[in-house]
Amino acid sequence: APRAAPRAPSIPRGASLPHTTGQASRTVRAMGFGATFEAQAQARPNERANYVRYAAFKEKLLAMAAKGNLRRDSAAREGFARDYQAEVDRLTRFAGSSVESIWMRIDLVHGELPADAKDPKAQKISLYRVQDIEQDIDDLGKEILSFREFMSSNVEAFQHIAQKFDQMLRESGVKAKSPLDASAFSAKRDEVERLVETFLVLLSDLYARARRTKNNKEGGDAVWVPPESFQRKTTKYWVKAEDLLAVKFQIIKHLPLLIFGRKQGGKTEEGGSLSFVSQNEETLRDSQKISSVYYDTEDLQVYHNRLLRHDFASLVRVRWYGERDDSLEFPLFVERKVHREFWTGNKSVKERCPIDQGDLSAALDLGRMPPGLTKDDKSGALLASIQSFLREGGKKQVPMVRTQYMRSAYQEATSNAVRISIDTDLKMVRERGAPRREGDWCRDMAAPLPPCDVVDFPYAVLEVKLQDEPAPWVNELTEGGMLVAVPKFSKFQNGMALLYPSKLRNSPWWFLPDGKGGMTPANFEEMADTRDPYLEKANPAFFGEAKAPAPAGRNPSGAGKLEHVDCTKGSKGLERKRSVGKMVKSLFVATGDGPNEYHIMCMPLSRRSSSAKKQAAEGSDEESSDLTMTPRAKAIVRTRIEPKTFFANERTFLSWLQVSVIVIFMAFSLLDGSTVGGMIGGRKKSVADEEDNHRLHASQISGALLAPIGIAMMGYALYVHRMRSMQILRRDTVRFDDQKGPVIIVCALCFAVTVAYAIGLSSIIAHG
Q1: Which of 167, 315, 455, 715 registers the highest number of CB atoms within 10 A of its CB?
Q2: DSSP result, 177-215
């Protein structure tokens, strides 16, 4: 921007500027945002010229402050406002042209790529060209992510400049005629935010076309049809909002977006032309709103059964898609989830039956069958079973909590082998005692929503569902540092624990002690902190150094903490659980107590350790906090450890110990010479003759070789026992069988037996 005043001389940080108030100087120098903004701009040299010239505006403000008398210098004020507006117009034009460029590049790639292998264009394009196009799509995705960050950073830069200028005017006693206005660029930023979702859908189509062409597969016109039933292994993760778009762009490289009723790949009719700009933006949204209302008893019996994962622990919910209206024909789904223990050989199942909204209250509250359904039908039999379950044990279940979120799914339309879903904008809403419209069955969301009746979940929930072993790209995604694993995470359990704390006997495993006798959900940093307290106590000479997984983004400030306003007064926290005793200190562990609980779904309130109290008393700086485990993360029990696992380890140790004792006593017998010369009852026969002396010598040599081997086996058994105990406590996903120890022991025994055999054979030959 053209400068209205000469550049101010370099002034040391913190020094006073001449001819101006000290307060105005400190205001200008306090622009800490500038260093971060300039670093972002310098990191993108190709885009550097398109960023807001923040440093130039800062120098201009410094020059105005140094010149002083800002009240009378209207020319300087008006010049700064003109330069600011010119900069806004420049970046707005650049943003508009960048959006048009992205549209055209997507359109060109779409026109060149075949829809699938049976498209006539597939015979004319080479594999090398498809690979080049895939690289172009990768570059386009990176450009979209970078452009989105560019827009957000520059909007923030304009806001900072305007705030500092307005603050300087106020401190100088000047009333601005009109504030600096960057609304045009902000509106363009909002447009880009809306278009990013559309770009994501279109790039997913392009990747899908490239994969089908490269792999010579059809399916460009395939539409996904939900299967009646299937079994998949599900793992759940949390994702921060700032990483969400990068995760989505990473997924669409391997799996296309699955939009119900839409053809994957954006295939057009024969001879048709494609204009992305003219497409309805609503049809290109990557997510759909899903709402579910969960039923439970007043004492939360369903919650606690699901929490403890009892066999046949069931759950009933009513689900719908999109916005619910008042019509009696609005489609709903009554679903039942039944958990089965793995030892039964049965799989957990989820069943559902459709029902019209007008028939729901009579079906679930009064136990009546909807018109057209009978108990002989599959859906009717399921509904009858659900009706019986809702009144089981004489306790009636009622709507207790609602979850609503936006879900985007990623899956091939022709395969169910891999499915990834991402739930964003997750809310848990109280249903019990909530206001309802007359004749309605659930909460009226149009009514005012008190803060104590809603929980806003701060992260996205990503689910990976697999039928087979995960592909390498799935492992790269889950281990890349942007996700944190939260196995068995439940929206229902999280909402119930936060909305009805006074009724809880136990909390979910991802709830941690809050230091006040209660439990609160862990944040992202605490779940991502997988450093092992047991490994820190272990002797490195025996256990070496553990390989930590790629760390998810850590924020010492705990940003994104899940908070909930509790309206209940005088409600007690969860009952504190006391450990019966402390674990015996390990031979290879220096100090510290073992864990008190080994149950994944039932977290106790743990007491603060002496080291934690000492650290809290002495205080710790930011550097030391990065080197120690997140305090509450120590209480997380991520996987259940069955007691039989420890007993099996002990049985293995006793088996090794038994063999080593046999070897040692055999060696003692050989050393004593009790096996030579027909010794009976421990009495020695005369060893005066040369033959018996030679045999005694051979026996003692064999015993001398076997004795240290037996002692070594005993020490090895103890070492392996303690090492496996540590691995079990750490829940290591490693091979538990020793690859070297048994081989070394067998070689040592073979050596001792071979030497004893050679000496004995030589004795027989010499005196035979």
Answers
A1: 455
A2: SS----HHHHHHHHHHHHHHHHHHHHHHHHHHHHHHHHT
Q: How far apart are CA 135 and CA 241, in angstroms?
A: 26
Alpha carbons 699 and 667: distance in angstroms, whole number: 9
Report d(CA 535, CA 547) in Å as an integer.
Answer: 11
Residue 257 main-chain phi, psi, to 5 deg: -65, 135
Contacts of 255 (CB under 8 A, 6+ apart): 410, 411, 412, 418, 420
Distances (CA, A) of 52 to 38, 157, 178, 485: 10, 7, 21, 39
Q: Residues 6 or more apart from 112 whose CB is under 8 A from it?
A: 121, 125, 133
Q: Which two tokens stand for residue 450?
A: 């008190």
pTM to 2 decimals?
0.68
Nearest CA among 164, 176, 136 for reference residue 57? 164
* Burial environment of residue 580 by CB neighbours within 10 A (0 to 12, 13 to 18, 19 or more): exposed
Q: Which residues of 64-78 are buried (b: 16+ CB within 10 A; e: fewer)?
A: bbbbbebeebeebbe
Return the structure tokens found at 630: 């997140």
Residues 210-223 have a mean pLDDT of 71
Q: Which amino acid is at 58?
A: K
What single DSSP character describes residue 14?
Answer: T
- Going 46 to 49 to 51 to 56, the CA torsion angle's sign is positive
pLDDT digits (tens, 9 = 90+) for 487-510: 889 999 999 999 999 898 888 988
Tally Cβ neighbours within 10 Å of residue 594: 17
DSSP state of 466: E
In terms of phi and psi (left: phi > 0; alpha: psi -120 to 50; beta: otherwise), the region of 436 is beta
State residue 386's pLDDT score. Answer: 92
Tell me the residue type at 29. Answer: R
Residue 282 CB neighbour total at 10 angstroms: 7
What is the 8-class DSSP label of residue 582? Answer: P
**Left (φ > 0), alpha (ψ -120 to 50) or beta: where does 707 sit?**
alpha
| pLDDT, tens only, 88-120 | 999 999 999 999 999 999 999 988 888 777 777
